[in-house]
Amino acid sequence: MRVLVTGAAGFIGAALSETLLARGDQVIGIDNCDPYYDVSLKQARSRRLAQLGGNRFAFLPVDFGNTDALQTALEGLEFDRIVHLGAQAGVRYSIENPHAYVHSNLVGHVNMLELARHREVEHMVYASSSSVYGGNAKLPFAVEDRTDHPVSLYAATKKADELMSETYAHLYRIPLTGLRFFTVYGPWGRPDMMMWKFTANILAGRQIPVFNHGDMYRDFTYIDDIIAGVVACLDHPPADDGREKAGGSVKPHALYNIGNHRSEALMKVIGLLEQACGRKAELDMLPMQPGDVHKTYADIAAIQRDLGYAPTTAIEQGVPKFVDWFREYHQV
Length: 332
Fold this sequence. Notes:
By secondary structure, the protein is α/β, with parallel strands linked by helices. Helices cover 42% and strands 15% of the residues. The longest helix is centred in the N-terminal third of the chain and has 22 residues, at 98-119. The radius of gyration is 19 Å and the shape is globular.
């Protein structure tokens, strides 16, 4: 299979590309290596993919939010399916720099939908987010729940991506699958995310910022489990048969949660990090931040039923694996 992967130098995109290459697929990776976080990490991921994939991996340094640049970069290249993982990420950063989210997550998503339409691809899988659930009080979050009260611009752009995808599935019958990811962590992760920041600060003897005074819960999902779900979705396009799909569409458009189906206390995770790092954390207790939510918890019944998805890595195993990788990568 020939797969176009956006965000290929990102955390999930690089891990997916590695898995696809390992099973023999060809991968065209797109990433503009935005400096939102350390570009050298993105470059290290892409170099690793080039070594693993050889001539079955091509990397294109292009901004998919730039329509002309995207079309020019892909001219003459063929692919069967798309996994659109590239986006401007981060809840808090969306308050500081809203236009970056409009460019990447709205304009960029339309560009990818148009590409899928005109290339007549077999299937496009795209990244949504658990952030679409906003401050929903009902737990766990299910794909049937209302998602029209986002509490950050990032969440609003991801909800908009789902709505635009529904329109394209209706108008052009493009098979589309949206994935609502829940707090992904693991080796080669993102420096802007809690697991990385806390590990770095604990090892350096610096304070870690603990929001809502530690009363926070997240459905932490290990990267291998995330990738297993993405690949299962990629291999099973939703049928254009008029039947209701996960998420409620009767078009060839499905929505799935990909999580661990466990809502873990933040303080428990901090304890596991302390054990793995071999030292106590210095806690800076802070109030809740704008755009944050108190708890996330994935109902994964739909993806279990349709695709047999079954996460296998609990945080008791995943956190030490991440810390081991972090120490090796940074030589600390």
